[in-house]
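Good morning N.,

You mentioned wanting to compare the apo and holo forms, so I went ahead and generated the holo version with FE2/S2 (inorganic) cluster. This is what I fed in:
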Amino acid sequence: MTDDDRRDAVTPQQRQEPDSGNAPAVPAAGPAPAGEPEPPEGQPVPDRFEDPGLPEHRPRSTDRDPRAARRAEFQVAALFSLSVTGTLLALAAYYTVQVEDDLGVAELLGRLRLSTLLLGIGLFLALFCVGAGVVHWARRLMPGEEWTEHRHVLRGSDTDRAEARRILADGAAESGLGRRPLIRNTLVGALALAPLPAIALLRDTGPLPEDSLSRTFWRAGLHLVRDPEGGRIRPDDLVVGSVVHVMPEGVDEAEHPLEERAKAAVLVIRLDPEDLDQESLGGAHEGIVAYSKICTHMGCPVGLYEQQTRHLLCPCHQSTFDVSRHCQVIFGPAKRPLPQLPLTVDPEGYLVAADGFREAVGPSFWERG
Ligand code: FES
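and this is what came out, ligand included:
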């Protein structure tokens, strides 16, 4: 069937000018919608369908029963009141639960948990209840009839468009920009440089991170201690397949212990040295390897070790790292291997770092090479 044949098959009532502005939506030609019978075989599929319109309006209980409407009104008011309570709770938690660096680690963690919990509950109540209240109000009490608003033509009239063109042309002529290139060029320069102070003022939003994202607390000679129980580790403490979460000794005495702990978390794993590739063996001690626990995708702790396959799995987005091949990414969104911490032992036989990390740990950032 040609395009002309198809046009002829449409009745005059069905044919609409596409830009009439009031035309009802007409589905395009194609397979019959679900639930409608397919046309008999050999028959052409019609190009146009009847507009089914809106379903019949059915009054709600709140339309018929004033007591139901009153109940719904109370429910909406209760949700809004709960939202107010949540806001006050969040404000109270913010100002009363103080989280300061000079607290001990245990108390600091406790305060952080309490503050986060109360802020979370408060903000959840504040936002969820106000949203739920508005939805409930709209569904139960606002006029419930559906109606269609036709889209109007947005184009201005030809007269308005001609007038706008004339005003612009007059303005350009009066400003003399075309005739005075000196003014035009200095204006362009002034406008181009005007945003620079705003960019420079961004420096006041906080101290620059400098190299703090690239270095960790680890350095040569620091002992590996179990996290959180503490205690140095000898190679003999680990059997093949065992995994230990470790921190550098003394990290809790750092100026910002929480920040340092967040970057320095390491997983120590013992493998059969024959299972390790050459690159991994470079930083290993008797088959014991140490890798940053911070996922190189978005920084979650990579804590799931599969002993049989020697794979480390990040629970957040399932990035998987092969420990026997220098923690290369074998699955998931992470783009870089987990950085390795080179190991050795001190004269007493305890595991120590042979050096710091040789690359930044954690997710990529703008200054990472
Ligand atoms: S944070 Fe680990 S996979 Fe996304």
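Residues 295, 297-298, 300, 314, 316-317, 319, 332-334 surround FE2/S2 (inorganic) cluster (CB under 6 Å).

Happy to go through it together on a call whenever suits you.

Best,
F.
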